[in-house]
Amino acid sequence: MTVAASPSTSKSVWSLFRFRVAIPQSATLLAALLGAAAFLGGWQLLVSLHVVAPVFLPTPLRVAQTFVRMCTDGSMLPNTVVSVRRVWLAFLLSALLAVPLGILMSGYRIIGATLEPMIDFIRYLPVPALVPLAIIWFGVGETTKIFLLWLGTFFQLVLMIAADMKRIPNEYFETAYTLGARPRETLLPVALPAMLPQLMDSMRISLGWCWTYVIIAEIVASDSGLGFVIWTARRFMKTDQVMAGVIMIGLIGLVTDQCLRLLHRKLFRYQ
């Protein structure tokens, strides 16, 4: 005997697909689990039907087993710590320079007019093409790796921060002027708090960009880091180890991104 779904239940399910409608947390979690299950099922199906040879695309179970083994035998976690340290060091250096420069570029248009064309030019340069120059300038040590990660992050971030500054309504500054503030005195007490929610989002996005350059940075005469693990496994066609390293980067990114989203919601409840 089958029980037909009630009209109210069907209506509530379809309401989740309405444009820009808020959905409950339970529906968000269920959708994420279903999406992951569909992805893994399609992956397994490709291998089972021999559409792709296992040497090029191992099964999800084999990759999971390799991931666990590499985490327990000491070949994954120490290199993960090295990569996390490099990424955060380069990212914090980028943020330390980009935040004040982006605010000044937007607050003082002459500074923006002077620097923006040059920054636009540099940010379109492919980072791999600059690896030889980085080696010539800094050698093959740790400085080169940090520089390449910084290079892929800073020039994107500074323009995003300048755009965040431009979005602040002029009424905020005009109110400060009526209270006796000078233009330069509005940067910290007015501009920075007003742009802080968007600033955190910009930094969260740019942190993800920084991780995308970790492979490039860690193949430069490196003997540690997740990029080194992935590149070494590639040389010997160990596809499961390559994918395990990629999954570790993805997991770090997912956890970091969700933590920053949670912090954003806690700090800016009024939004």
Automatic annotation (TrEMBL):
The keyword Transmembrane helix applies. One of its GO terms (cellular component) is plasma membrane. InterPro entries: MetI-like (IPR000515), MetI-like_sf (IPR035906). CDD domains: TM_PBP2 (cd06261). The keyword Cell inner membrane does not apply. SUPFAM superfamilies: MetI-like. It is a multi-pass membrane protein. Its main location: membrane. It is found in: Cell membrane. One of its GO terms (biological process) is alkanesulfonate transmembrane transport. Residues 80-260 form the ABC transmembrane type-1 domain. Keywords: Cell membrane, Membrane, Transmembrane, Transmembrane helix, Transport. Belongs to the binding-protein-dependent transport system permease family. Probably part of an ABC transporter complex. Probably responsible for the translocation of the substrate across the membrane. This is Nitrate transport permease nrtB. It comes from Acetobacter aceti.
